[in-house]
Automatic annotation (TrEMBL):
Family of this protein: Belongs to the bacterial sugar transferase family.
InterPro entries per record: Bact_transf, EPS_sugar_tfrase, Undecaprenyl-P_gluc_Ptfrase
Cell compartments where the protein resides: Membrane
Record protein name field: Undecaprenyl-phosphate glucose phosphotransferase
Domain Bacterial sugar transferase: 274-457
A Gene Ontology molecular function term of the record: undecaprenyl-phosphate glucose phosphotransferase activity
Biological classification of the source: Bacteria, Pseudomonadati, Bacteroidota, Cytophagia, Cytophagales
Amino acid sequence: MNKYRHYYSFNRVLLLILDVTLIAFAFKLSNLIRYGNFELDHQYNIFFVLFALVWWIVSGFSNFVVRIDGFLPIDRRLSNLLNVFVMHALILASCIVVFNLEQLSRLLLLYTYLSTALLIGFSRLIMFQVNRYFTNSDMAHTRYVIVGSGQAAATLQQTLSNNDEIGTKFMGFFDDEADMSSPYASQVRGGMEELKDYCLQHSIDEIYYTKPLTDEGQIDELTEFANDNFIYLRLVPDFSAIVKKDVNVYFYHNIPMLSVRNEPLELASNRVVKRIFDVVFSLAVILLIFPILVPIIALLIKLESKGPIFFKQLRPGKKNRLFVCYKFRTMRVNNNTELQATKNDPRITRFGAFMRKTSLDELPQFFNVLLGDMSVVGPRPNLVSQLDHYSKVISKYKMRHFVTPGITGYAQVSGYRGETKEVHLMEKRVEYDVMYMANWSLMMDMKIIFLTVWNMIKGEKNAY
């Protein structure tokens, strides 16, 4: 709801300021435990700035860290906070190497992380309880009524009640044509004639109008009444007859528009964030890993079989545009490049099988990322022949091409990798690809990358 936008912005800033304050206290406390005084040396002061900056960046991309409302259960809240600390630690460890801060005391770092985790975790619990007390108090409630008593009204009431974020109190339905046999009949306070008196007697703050928007006279009358009595009027049109799933609502100037697909990457700001991350991450891999691994991999490929080191193949990308996808060659040179690899495929070399198992053959695709043809995380680019086939038999297959394909993806870390002998296996991949598109966040990308690295270490049974 728009009236809460500034509340959440203020809440985000307040919590980040509190976090930095607690981090500063954790640094002082850790230094006292380790060295017996509160004075930090110059290097540790620099590390504090770095520590706080990384925390600000990581938590800024995570709504569950900068919210203290009751939207998430406590166990999910603590689990998410732990995930953010893990991501923060991974990024900070990389920064320590890049900025040459290895002289920092390991014991001091341990004390700092433990005290920071305890202080921030404990502060969230306290603020969560305070927020819960505040939202349950009468003074915090925003009193609202709903005009209408049909399915749209009932769904709205359940949604507002279940997601009681900063304190709302439902006062009843008002409808001249209420179905008194419905489960909500006892909550109908009257018809439209009784609405105005009820609002004034019970200090109603908001009116939600869920009836069809065809009665212009009634809406104008309610608008005038609400304006005269400092009550917010919300029009909640019922699109359930034409839209059977969640939608995004946005405005182009003053024209409301519905997007029937929930896709965070529709927003230009999210695409910019993802692109910046892709470029930085790819450059880090190319500069730090390639000089070590590429010569070794190239030598082993050449020793085992004749042919080029790299394998190039056209793959369909965003909006089905073809691009040249790069990989390390894992097969003996053959003319069946559009044929998907199978278990015990005779075309695959021994070292090629190892690279496929550990995903090392995908490393050259970081150049595809820099070129803009791919992303680090996204739906895996299939063969052109697969695009032609599956787009005809799987209804949502083409949807995965709304976004840039990735080196790794949500489907791959969820166990759907390798040969797709049956249509249902590809359907599951598409299902996870669409889920990724609908739930994208930078934290989700980082989680998928972490799981990909973990799978590389332990090996993938379906990769061949």
